[in-house]
Design a protein that fits this description.
Layout: H1 6-19, E1 33-38, H2 49-67, E2 71-73, E3 77-78, H3 83-92, H4 96-113, E4 124-125, H5 129-144, E5 148-158, E6 163-165, E7 170-171, E8 174-175, E9 183-192, H6 198-203, H7 213-223, E10 225-235, E11 243-248, E12 259-262, H8 276-285, H9 292-297, E13 302-310, E14 318-324, E15 335-338, H10 344-352, E16 361-362, E17 383-384, H11 395-408, E18 412-418, E19 423-424, E20 426-427, E21 437-439, E22 445-447, H12 469-472, E23 478-480, E24 486-489, E25 493-494, H13 496-499, H14 503-506, H15 519-525, E26 530-534, H16 540-553, E27 568-571, E28 574-580, E29 586-587, E30 592-596, E31 599-602, E32 610-616, H17 627-634, H18 636-645, E33 653-654, H19 657-679, H20 689-708, H21 712-732, H22 737-751, H23 756-764, H24 777-780, E34 784-791, E35 794-802, H25 807-815, H26 818-821, E36 827-835, E37 839-846
Parallel strand pairs: 1-2, 1-26, 3-4, 12-14, 26-27, 28-33, 34-37
Antiparallel strand pairs: 5-6, 5-9, 7-8, 9-19, 10-11, 10-13, 10-18, 12-15, 13-14, 16-17, 20-25, 21-22, 21-24, 23-24, 28-29, 28-32, 30-31, 34-35, 36-37
This protein binds one RNA strand of 86 nucleotides through helix 7, helix 9, strand 19, strand 20 and helix 16.
Length: 847
RNA sequence: GCCCUCGUGGUGAAAUUGGUAGACACAAAGGACUUAAAAUCCUUGCCCAUUAGGGAGUGCCAGUUCGAGUCUGGCCGAGGGCACCA
């Protein structure tokens, strides 16, 4: 029998698909569309197993939908602006454009080897002017809608390299190249006003029925709507009417307030700029990183302003004003009142500066006199005390009443605040989309005329200079308006998240020159019916894309999309064991060999290898497997099959060589069985035709259902089972040839989305049209069912009875089973629980 | 530190959503075929029992229930995100 020649057959079909443009999607209003999108890759060099998994999952869905008759859009492109290109450029002295294009070429070739049903005619690359010129136009539109503005914010500043660092370039507070302690520096930067849509972005999470709950919850927490109260504190200074406005979610604890803390960026802090102690304090603060994590774990420190405010409800009490490193200007009003007894941060701060700690909430079962706070704040629910008119109320009632009184006395009001911050889009980097803004001699920012787009990146750039490459370019930033007025270009580029916030629109009209998308295209294809990608994008990328849709729709009658992704699926990572040599250096899996179970040595000098835990594949730990090498060895179908078979797609999968090789063997088995069935000549009995038909019908039902639910690993198990059954039937000659062939054909159709090359090859001999088999729900019904017999909840036997048997019959039959009756003698049956067609449970009592 | 998720045999996992735990695979051990190897096929799989059968058992501890992998509370462990990696 002919052996299945992977290389030949996979190449053959890939060529046919390419030649016949099988995967090209054309707008067709008479056909129901399905837009299947996987997150496009960053062209980092070669594809990795994470890509293989992501795109295999997507391809299964796309092929399945196509077989079902949908008009499928399944495009691919490149998220090709970004930091690594600049790093690579510096290391290899290669222009980012060349490096990026070369990587794209390599990765495209590799993706094609996988046999993905991608429409390559729609390929886009965000670093090309054909893409980013539309993004520049969007920026100008947003600017004109006042959804873009400039403000000062902090960046990580490397004082030695004179450059802004990304968070990942800051390691233990130091620059990754310079090793110098990184400082926080204020820069004027561009922002998208995402905060404006906070409520909308939160509300519409409810519309996303087919998104994982965990992603929606993460976004909800990220937006972070909180209900609270603004309170004005009068500064205690002669002839001063100056007030400090604070925001709090716990107005109930107002009687426990013992200090006021201001953000270092609060307007009042400006008054201390010439104070030596304040300068020292500021310097100290500037050593803390810019990430939320860094701020959260940093020691709480403050600067005493020697100013006081009057407590609005306690005449005799004045509270000191501090400037503190844990208060953020971005959140609330940039000022808080500290209630140390009921907030851990406030307590740490109060203990450090010897401030008053007055508890005002106690657990309901604790005596007020004995309730003390020392090192742990009490943040739970309870009863108010030490709080005048709030005494004896619960926390929630006290919050209500406090807000009422504060409003009535006119020193504050109820207020809703969001944690979500505006999106900073400025980057002081070369390899990004230039921001289409110029500044006139007065420093006024003006949008560039549409006719002058795209603003092209200069090709001749020196990335070895310190600082912002575009700003350092000798001529690029100098330009003129059409009036002849001299202006200077914005030298910041856009965050690459902007590129990926609308690429799914571009895929609908990839070649349209006039605008970023064409209405007739997006009206047909949008929204994305299924979006698939890594869970690491659960918040930022997805939230920014949701924002971008709203920003485009804002004051725009011709665009009414709000939610870009109808359904979302987040897949897990691909993991592999890690290996180190005796010098604690990472080793690649192909540098080692197995001696015995769990015992590995280096191939080169047979030295002992230390096996570490299985972790997400990453270049830094060298626990990577090259997909192209694997495809060469086992073929794309085997790799696809393995990727889907071992773990549910949403969970992490362990790469296993045995697993791939088992997949490879199974592909061979399927091929052999296919030929055996098709070539079978001798006449056989048809005694079990109906059983095979029923089993195949059930398989069709299960595979369809499991595909819909992304339970691809179960689909594989279903197919294994039906394969085993076919083997049994063919070995025992119990099915007629015709039935065998008809039923097998359905199985080959079920294989189409998973192993497209093999499945197509199997069908060449029958020359049938491709289709998705339908199941007969009548044939799914069994006449009999198995009923579990329990005594006191323990299984003691099983009965096979007709469906819907009466309880009395089940009881009688059960008692006749020896292993059941022996547990029913010498006891009385208190009651029995009968679940129709499932189980009967006898509850007994000793006599 | 904050937010989120996950935890089932030696391994990856399945379980009609509260009703037979371990389907389907991988690995291992034993066997068949073979001069041998490869390939292929069969059997086994925690504890007690020759068998029939029984017991323990879904990270740990409690709880709800006739019945819990599934629901509730607490604990432990692993992973993801934290706004300039993408």
């Amino acid at each position: 029998m002919e052996r299945y020649n992977i290389k030949l057959i996979e190449k053959k079909w890939q060529n046919i698909w390419l030649k016949e443009k099988t995967n090209a999607s054309i707008l067709n209003k008479n056909k129901k569309k399905f837009y299947c999108l996987e997150m496009f890759p960053y062209p980092s060099g070669k594809i990795h197993m994470g890509h293989v998994r992501n795109y295999t999952i997507g391809d299964v869905l796309a092929r399945y939908k196509k077989l079902q008759g949908f008009n499928v859009l399944h495009p691919m492109g490149w998220d090709s602006f970004g930091l690594p290109a600049e790093n690579a450029a510096r290391e290899n002295n290669l222009h980012p454009k060349i490096w990026t294009r070369k990587n794209i070429q390599t990765m495209k070739k590799q993706l094609k080897l996988l046999g993905l049903s991608l429409d390559w005619d729609r390929e886009i690359s965000t670093c090309e002017p054909e893409y980013y010129k539309h993004q520049q136009e969007f920026f100008i539109e947003l600017f004109k809608k006042k959804l873009v503005y400039k403000k000062d914010t902090y960046v990580n500043w490397d004082p030695k390299e004179q450059t802004v660092l990304a968070n990942e370039q800051v390691i233990d507070g130091k620059g990754w190249r310079s090793g110098v302690v990184v400082e926080r520096k204020k820069l004027s930067q561009w922002f998208f006003n995402i905060k404006k849509f906070s409520q909308d972005l939160l509300d519409d999470l409810n519309k996303l029925k087919n998104w994982p709950d965990k992603v929606k919850l993460m976004q909800k927490n990220w937006i972070g709507k909180s209900f609270g109260c603004e309170i004005n504190f009068q500064i205690d200074k002669k002839n001063s009417k100056e007030k400090i406005k604070v925001f709090t979610t716990r107005p109930d604890t107002i009687f426990g307030a013992s200090f006021i803390a201001l953000s270092i960026d609060h307007p009042i802090a400006k008054n201390f700029e010439n104070n030596k102690n304040f300068q020292d304090f500021k310097l100290k603060c500037s050593k803390t990183g810019t990430t939320e994590e860094a701020l959260a774990i940093a020691e709480k420190i403050g600067f005493n302003t020697d100013l006081f405010v009057q407590h609005p409800l306690k005449k005799e009490t004045k509270l000191p004003i501090y400037i503190a490193n844990f208060v953020l200007m971005d959140y609330g009003t940039g000022a808080i009142f500290g209630c140390p007894a009921h907030d851990q941060r406030d307590l740490d701060f109060a203990n450090k500066y010897k401030l008053n700690v007055l508890p005002v909430v106690r657990p309901s079962d604790v005596d007020p006199a004995s309730f003390k706070i020392s090192n742990e704040a009490y943040t739970g629910d309870g009863i108010l005390f030490n709080s005048d008119f709030l005494d004896n109320l619960t926390v929630s009632k006290a919050i209500e009443k406090a807000i009422k009184v504060i409003t009535k006395k006119k020193f504050g009001e109820k207020k809703i605040t969001f944690r979500l911050k505006d999106w900073g889009v400025s980057r002081q980097r070369y390899w990004g989309c230039p921001i289409p803004i110029v500044y006139n001699s007065k420093g006024k920012a003006l949008p560039v005329d549409k006719k002058d787009l795209p603003i092209l990146l200069p090709e001749d750039v020196d990335l070895n200079l310190k600082g912002n490459p575009l700003a350092k370019h000798p001529t690029w930033k100098f330009t003129k308006l059409s009036s002849g007025e001299k202006v200077i270009r914005e030298t910041d580029t856009l965050d690459t998240f902007v590129d990926s916030s609308w690429y799914f629109l571009r895929f609908c009209s990839p070649k349209y020159e006039k605008y970023g998308y064409e209405s007739k295209d997006i009206n047909y294809w949008m929204p994305v019916d299924q979006y698939i990608g890594g869970v690491e994008h659960a918040i930022l990328h997805l939230l920014y894309s949701r924002f971008f849709m709203r920003a485009l729709a804002y004051n725009n009658k011709n665009f009414d999309y709000t939610e870009p992704f109808e359904s979302l699926f987040t897949q897990g990572m691909v993991c592999h064991e890690t290996y180190k040599n005796e010098f604690n250096q990472w080793l690649y899996p192909d540098e080692i060999e197995k001696k015995s179970e769990g015992n590995f040595v280096t191939k080169k000098d047979k030295k002992k290898v230390i096996v570490g835990p299985s972790e997400s594949m990453s270049k830094s730990k060298k626990n990577i497997i090259d997909p192209e090498e694997m495809i060469n060895m086992y073929g794309a179908d085997s790799i696809r099959w393995f990727m889907l078979s071992d773990s549910p797609p949403e969970r992490d999968v362990q790469w296993s060589q045995e697993g791939v090789s088992a997949a490879f063997k199974f592909i061979q088995k399927l091929w052999r069985l296919n030929n055996e069935i098709l070539e079978k000549k001798e006449s056989t009995s048809d005694s079990e035709d109906i059983n095979l038909k029923k089993a195949v019908n059930k398989t069709v039902y299960r595979v369809t259902k499991n595909l819909e639910n992304f339970q691809y690993n179960v689909v594989i198990a279903n197919l294994h089972e039906i394969y085993n059954l076919f083997c049994y039937h063919i070995a025992n000659n119990k099915t007629s040839n015709q039935t065998m062939k008809n039923e097998w054909e359905k199985i080959t159709m079920l294989l189409m989305p998973l192993t497209p090359h093999l499945a197509h090859e199997c069908c060449t001999k029958t020359n049938k049209k491709f289709y998705w088999p339908k199941f007969d729900s009548k044939l799914l019904k069994e006449q009999n069912c198995k009923i579990v017999i329990q005594v006191n909840g323990r299984k003691r036997g099983i009965l096979e009875l007709p469906l819907n048997s009466k309880e009395t019959l089940v009881i009688t039959k059960s008692k006749k089973i020896d292993n059941v009756s022996k547990y029913l003698t010498d006891v009385s049956i208190v009651k029995n629980i009968y679940i129709k067609n499932k189980l009967i449970n006898f509850i007994t009592k000793n006599e």
